[in-house]
């Protein structure tokens, strides 16, 4: 599910998409939900905002200089933007991946390295302009227990999906003991593909444009009494 909805004075403008596996041939089916459908199964990581415009801090450059260096440059140019200015929007534009980490993990680990055990949360959207992406879709619920990451991966259906892909989701640099999924982005396209984002698969041509805003509060709903680390990627 790629949640993208506006609620204003009780009226819903729903642009949320869902993707599912075609049981006939295993292909991806992408659908847009109607305004009267707001249910969600299992879990969701949602970013909510008032939708107001904010000042943009721009990062623009080749990914060969690493996202970490680019974000640290923002710290210097904007006076530790993540510490002081909650209304800012961070624009990240980069191309050509040279490391193993995906786009979101690169941002998250940079924040983690800088802020240590302090929690910095971002929510927003990014566009994968070039490169295919490894993404998964959940099939029907498993009839047997999934007791390991290997079990989960064997159950999921993986696809190599084509750009452009539009992703929405959240990330948090450090879990403050709330049993959070530290990053979770789903993407959709206008050519019938969508799923859970893992990484681009053509790093030499990968190009991203992202817009992220800072979270002021984290709300953890229905935290389970027992937890596990399985299937967190």
State the end-to-end distance. 16 Å
What is the CATH class designation?
Alpha Beta
Rg estimate, integer Å: 18 Å
Estimated share of beta-strand residues: 25-35%
Count of individual beta strands:
13
The biggest sheet amounts to: 9 strands, mixed
Instruction: Pick out the low-confidence regions.
Output: 72-87
List the domain count as a whole number.
1
CATH superfamily: Hypothetical protein, similar to alpha- acetolactate decarboxylase, domain 2
Q: Helix share of residues?
A: 10-25%
Topology as a string of helices (H) and strands (E): EEEEEHHEHEEHEEEEE
Strand order of the largest sheet: 5-6-13-7-10-11-12-8-9
Output the CATH topology: 60s Ribosomal Protein L30, Chain: A
Q: What's the total helix number? A: 4
CATH architecture: 2-Layer Sandwich
Overall form = globular
Output mean pLDDT: 88
Instruction: State the secondary-structure class.
Output: alpha+beta
């Amino acid at each position: 599910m790629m949640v993208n909805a506006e609620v204003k004075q009780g009226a819903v403008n729903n642009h949320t998409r869902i993707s599912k596996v075609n049981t006939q041939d295993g292909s991806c089916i992408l659908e847009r939900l109607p305004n009267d459908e707001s249910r969600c199964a299992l879990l969701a990581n949602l970013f909510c905002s008032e939708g107001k415009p904010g000042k943009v801090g721009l990062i623009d450059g080749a990914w060969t200089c690493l996202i970490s260096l680019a974000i640290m440059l923002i710290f210097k140019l904007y006076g530790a933007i993540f510490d002081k200015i909650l209304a800012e929007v961070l624009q990240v534009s980069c191309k050509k991946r040279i490391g193993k980490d995906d786009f979101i993990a690169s941002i998250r680990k940079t924040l983690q390295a800088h802020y240590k055990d302090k929690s910095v949360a971002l929510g927003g959207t990014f566009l994968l302009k070039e490169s295919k992406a490894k993404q998964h879709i959940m099939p029907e619920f498993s009839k047997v227990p999934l007791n390991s990451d290997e079990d989960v991966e064997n159950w999921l259906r993986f696809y190599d999906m084509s750009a452009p892909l539009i992703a929405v989701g959240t990330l948090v640099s450090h879990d403050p003991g709330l049993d959070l999924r530290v990053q979770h982005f789903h993407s959709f396209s206008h050519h019938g593909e969508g799923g859970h984002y893992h990484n681009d698969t053509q790093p030499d041509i990968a190009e991203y444009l992202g817009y992220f805003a800072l979270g002021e509060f984290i709300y953890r709903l229905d935290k389970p009494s027992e937890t596990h680390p399985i299937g967190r990627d």
